[in-house]
Each structure stands twice: as C-alpha cells, then as structure tokens.
C-alpha cells in the first residue's frame, strides 16, 4: 500500500510537468504559429508567450522536485528551452533562435524569483 501512495505522489508531481513540456513541443511543431495578423503585435504576443510558457515550466519543474531544488529546475527548464529551439530548426517555416532562448530564460528566472519571493513572504 505504501508503494502505491509513493507512486501516486510521484505521478501527481511529474505528470503536469510532462504534459506542459508536451504542450511546448506541440506548439513548436506547428509550422507557422501566428497569434495575430499584425506583425508587431504578433511578435510581442509570441515573445510574451515564451516568457509565460517558461515561467510555468519552471514552476512545474520546481513543484516536481517538491520545491527543494529550484536551481536544478532552472537548469532543466533552460535545457528544455535550448532543445526546443533546436527542435524548431527542423520544422518547416520555423527556425531555432538563440534570442528566444534568452527570452525563455527571462520567464524561467521570473518564475525562480517569484518562487523565492513567495517562499520568503510565507516564512
């Protein structure tokens, strides 16, 4: 019975993270992903999307580690961002862009600092 509880806890911690990573992978696989037809607003929307998506990925990874390894969560989220841009380089009409990795890192670090602030405020 104890093994079942541990498995359920493990799955409840990791399944949301894996699903979110899958959503990112799916969105990266769409050949021409445009949110808005206006070029400027499309650019702004996509870059804010990068920040938000990786902010959430950090929080989910950190939760998967039970909030005990936030630095590891930062590194894993960054590694995923790099691999995502590499993946996009193989998708028609897409390209891998190191600037997007930097933008993703803004979201990751935003999540990290938000987590630290929430944790500090709750003590």
TrEMBL record:
Keywords: Membrane, Transmembrane, Transmembrane helix
Alphabetized Pfam families for the sequence: VanZ (PF04892)
Keyword match Electron transport: no
Signal peptide: none
Domain of life: Bacteria
Record domain VanZ-like: where: 23-116
Segments passing through the bilayer: 7-28, 40-61
Designated name of the protein: VanZ-like domain-containing protein
Organism field: Candidatus Woykebacteria bacterium RIFCSPHIGHO2_02_FULL_43_16b
């Amino acid at each position: 019975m104890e093994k079942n509880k541990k498995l359920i806890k493990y799955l409840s911690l990791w399944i949301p993270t894996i699903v979110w990573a899958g959503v990112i992978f799916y969105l990266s696989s769409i050949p021409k992903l445009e949110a808005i037809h206006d070029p400027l607003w499309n650019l702004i929307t996509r870059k804010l999307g990068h920040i938000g998506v990786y902010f959430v990925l950090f929080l989910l990874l950190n939760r998967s580690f039970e909030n005990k390894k936030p630095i590891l969560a930062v590194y894993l989220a960054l590694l995923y961002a790099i691999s995502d841009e590499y993946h996009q380089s193989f998708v028609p009409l897409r390209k891998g862009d190191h600037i997007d990795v930097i933008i993703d890192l803004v979201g990751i670090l935003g999540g990290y600092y938000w987590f630290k602030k929430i944790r500090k405020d709750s003590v």
